[in-house]
Backbone:
């Protein structure tokens, strides 16, 4: 048995955005302090953290000083430089582990890993050159989508191919970055599973949610998903297979396309996930607490759903709707404390309780 | 209509204990920063607050500097010196208001106020001298209980009279402090109501909970209370009458004795209350968020109960039970981040979900 981290210990969190903010709040519930490491000034998590370090992920001295103040390290964000992780890992335990991060940082590595586990993904091909591109279009066909292998999120670093004529433009859009060409998946909807694995290998999953995107950004997650029960079970089992294969500790988000042939994995995220925010008002133990429990070596909490929820992201000037939302008793609001409203910026989310 | 405080604003909180800590977390959910004012170093709320000031409540310069950094002031604790409140009130709005605080700071004033509202209390008499004491014992009889008029909490500042022979000792126990002698109330159980009133006069109450004390400190609160529905309605109506009479803004705790003659008010607390901690896992909007909403001029949230809960305080070495409690999926833990375990010290609470 793992020895649980004692209350009063400090959890280091790489990244101080809204995920770090909500992780920090969950950590406080279990008696932990948090220390946030974040390159930008005044990040959302700073308002609810015991300590904040503002420095670049490349600043080795500051990373070392940070590590020395914490008992365990986790992250809200997967695009952390490898050299920084090497340094941190030499000083303190990092959960989820380096292997999970390595795999999810690169779309090609991730899809190869999933395929080797026997899990379905969109057809994919590696593209590093014009020659690769020609071969990839021949193999994958169109419509298809080019994505940078690394650093893509919320639809960034992507280019669509309606036909083979778009190939040159799509390659140019990658600006020389290694990329994958992904085949078009004919799906009826997208669902995701937020699953957790403890240090002792206990696995638990929240009910799958149904996701709707707008402009490449998650718009709503609805729980329960209106998808045949058999597919929901498949989704949970597939998430569990990934967790065990990675000897994973923490919360993992897995996005699936629902197709006539069953589930196809879109991508995995080695962290708490926007599509799991509904758990804050749908479950006794939310995804943030579940992650902190796992990272701290505690047993997992109760992730059973007590209420049906529609989570909606409030993006940019969606915040103009705040007066109406704050007066709606069905709406549980979660604001991120960001000073500036910008188009496309996630400012808050609302969990609308649709039954109890 | 009141203009709601804008997200990004700062709420000043007097007192940095566990109530301040949980208020601070609730404030973050609504996009507010908090600034804690607390005399002792490293208070529980400091881990989750944007700013902390460590100074005495008598330090006028520091109080003034504190007030100038915040948009509105509230408190977790009612025993704040009157002169400090006068100063703060001249600089920023304080909710709940001075009148609520004045009344609840003094048991005699409080009981007189409740009696004038037509609400039942234990029989009481003012005691400032031996002459008063003799008259009080003659009027109230025994068994009865002496309590200091001010600064009592968790059973402190109290002395029991089994018979008239205990009168001299009880008076001596008050150490010269003004006191009241309260008659014995023959009650079957204690319940409490946590109620809220918004700046616009909207009133909402959480379901009444049934309280069990041990050694003068709250041990458990069980919701729903096993008390006739008529009495639960009475309790909510009485709490509402108090809120309206005080033009109150914020959350108020009201403790009642359940007697064969109906409800008798034990005391009121002009703040979030230990017997309302169950709302964190029983309601969409907990007492802490409800208080922040009211103080910020927002509409009240949804305080309907979605789960039955037994809240238990973990006091002193109750913390030895942590390994068992963290592994029990029915238990939602809330730790206060206090470094030292001391006998009688509230360290944490657990909300046990008994149905969903």
Residues:
């Amino acid at each position: 048995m793992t020895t649980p981290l004692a209350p009063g210990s400090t959890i280091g969190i790489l990244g101080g955005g809204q995920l770090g903010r909500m992780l920090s709040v969950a950590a406080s519930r279990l008696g932990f302090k948090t220390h946030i490491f974040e390159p930008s000034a005044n990040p959302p998590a700073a308002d609810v953290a015991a300590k904040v370090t503002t420095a670049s992920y490349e600043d080795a001295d500051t990373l070392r000083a940070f590590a020395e103040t914490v008992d365990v390290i986790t992250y809200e964000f997967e695009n952390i430089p490898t050299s920084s992780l090497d340094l941190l890992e030499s000083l303190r335990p990092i959960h989820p582990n380096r292997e999970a991060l390595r795999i999810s940082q690169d779309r090609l590595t991730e899809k190869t890993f999933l395929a080797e586990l026997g899990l379905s993904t969109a057809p994919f091909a590696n593209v590093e050159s014009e020659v690769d591109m020609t071969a990839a279009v021949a193999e994958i066909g169109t419509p298809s989508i080019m994505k940078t292998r690394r650093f893509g999120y919320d639809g960034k670093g992507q280019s669509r191919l309606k036909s083979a004529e778009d190939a040159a433009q799509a390659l140019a859009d990658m600006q020389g970055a290694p990329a994958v060409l992904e085949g078009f998946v004919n799906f009826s909807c997208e669902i995701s599973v937020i699953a957790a694995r403890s240090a002792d290998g206990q696995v638990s999953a929240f009910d799958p949610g149904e996701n709707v995107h707008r402009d490449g950004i998650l718009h709503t997650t609805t729980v329960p998903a209106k998808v045949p029960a058999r597919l929901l079970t498949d989704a949970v089992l597939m998430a569990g297979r990934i967790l065990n294969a990675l000897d994973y500790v923490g919360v993992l988000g897995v996005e699936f396309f629902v197709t006539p042939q069953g589930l196809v994995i879109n991508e995995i995220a080695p962290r708490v996930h926007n599509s799991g925010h509904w758990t804050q008002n749908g479950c006794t133990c939310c995804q943030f607490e579940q992650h902190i429990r796992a990272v701290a070596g505690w047993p997992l909490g109760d992730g059973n759903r007590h209420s049906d929820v529609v989570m909606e992201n409030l993006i940019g000037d969606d915040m103009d709707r705040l007066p109406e939302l704050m007066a709606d008793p069905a709406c549980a609001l979660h604001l991120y404390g960001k000073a500036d409203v910008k188009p496309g910026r996630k400012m808050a989310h609302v969990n609308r309780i649709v039954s109890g």
Q: What stands out?
A: The interface with chain A takes residues 4, 7-8, 21, 24-25, 28-34, 46-50, 281, 284-285, 293, 298-299, 301-302, 304, 306-307, 322-323, 326-327, 329-330, 332-337, 339, 348, 353, 356 of chain B (CB under 8 Å).
